[in-house]
Design brief:
Length: 350
């Protein structure tokens, strides 16, 4: 049966991905490819206010609906009403939870597509360590699969992030003394992650920082939010004058602008790992309780993943846990500073 022209050529498109940093950035190929396929289309996006900076300067987004989680009911009602009035031709639900179902129900959209989370396969892998994934499919590719009906295929350009010139200039001026020093290599380090089983040890990060400061002509920038300030305070850094600690000081846009000065980023499996990937930085990523099959590796940039592949208890979660269910925490504790340093050396020498 021939599809209607309105479905084949949507003029008004709404994408829903409410959170978080990594997931929103992983949605950026969908934005780009829809715009390339339908250059005259209007593309709007629903996102939590706290993450809206990630798309604030995206050239292909016409309107951002900011979802306020502190005023959830009224915020969702307003977005739902606005979306119904616009009568979208296509809604792409990349979140697929009860909020996104609420927003799309009764929307009047001509077509609604949702990405397949693969919940059952994920459950079997996490709960019983039964791997029924025929192949490893990155999350951004799973997102793209829901719009394949429009003859859209991946262009190998990766994730994207945009920031304004003013933010870039103000960040450079703020840290000009540090950024203008004679270092030949700038390494960003993001030691945080929402869940404890995705965070490498303070001892490990400290050993790497001290090695880099003592043995290379590199400048080190620490990235993270306010919660990560406590992590950084637990570090034992021998020469702190050579390390710029920005944890808790920067917005997402400011973090992006400063990270853009880095040559390489050392990070856990976190949103800032995907930010580094979007900036096309070399990435050394430390993976604890999560694994590649879950789809969140730092694809489409030069990267090395450090992980403990011998543990049969991995993955114990698809998003991380606050405690190790077996109490040994070997997935993180068995990763050594030497392994991470070798990973950094290998990428720097490429």
């Amino acid at each position: 049966m021939k599809r209607s022209a309105s479905i084949q050529t949507p003029k008004k498109i709404l994408i829903i991905r409410l959170s978080s940093i990594g997931d929103v950035l992983l949605a950026t190929p969908v934005i780009r490819l829809l715009k390339n396929k339908f250059p005259d289309s209007q593309i709007d996006f629903v996102i939590k206010n706290e993450f809206s900076e990630l798309l604030k300067y995206h050239p292909f987004i016409d309107h951002l609906y900011g979802y306020d989680k502190n005023n959830e009911i009224n915020s969702l009602k307003k977005i739902k009403q606005d979306a119904r009035e616009k009568q979208y031709d296509l809604i792409v639900d990349l979140h697929k939870n009860f909020r996104s179902y609420y927003l799309t129900s009764g929307s009047g959209a001509k077509k609604i597509v949702r990405y397949k989370k693969g919940v059952f396969q994920r459950f079997l892998l996490v709960k019983f360590k039964l791997n029924f994934y025929k192949k490893i499919i990155p999350i951004f590719q799973r997102y793209l699969n829901c719009i394949k009906r429009y003859d859209i295929s991946f262009d190998d350009k990766g994730l994207e992030i945009f920031f304004d010139q003013g933010t870039g200039q103000s960040i450079f001026e703020k840290y000009s003394k540090f950024l203008n020093n004679s270092a030949v290599l700038t390494i960003g380090i993001a030691p945080g992650a929402k869940h404890a089983t995705k965070r490498w040890t303070a001892e490990g990060f400290s050993s790497v920082i001290n090695f880099l400061v003592q043995n290379t002509n590199a400048r080190i920038i620490l990235f993270g939010n306010r919660a990560d300030q406590k992590i950084v305070k637990s570090f034992s850094i021998e020469k702190p004058q050579f390390v710029l600690n920005t944890t808790g000081e920067l917005s997402l846009l400011e973090t992006t602008a400063l990270m853009n000065h880095c040559d390489l980023v050392l990070t856990n499996d976190s949103g800032l790992m995907h930010l580094a990937s979007a900036l096309k930085k070399k990435v050394v990523a430390i993976f604890g309780s999560t694994t590649e099959q879950l789809g969140f590796f730092p694809y489409l940039t030069e990267y090395i993943v450090i992980q403990n592949n011998r543990l049969k208890c991995r993955p114990c979660s698809h998003i991380g846990r606050n405690n190790c269910p077996r109490q040994h925490f070997k997935c993180i504790k068995k990763i050594t500073g030497e392994q991470v340093i070798e990973g950094i050396k290998a990428l720097v020498d490429k």
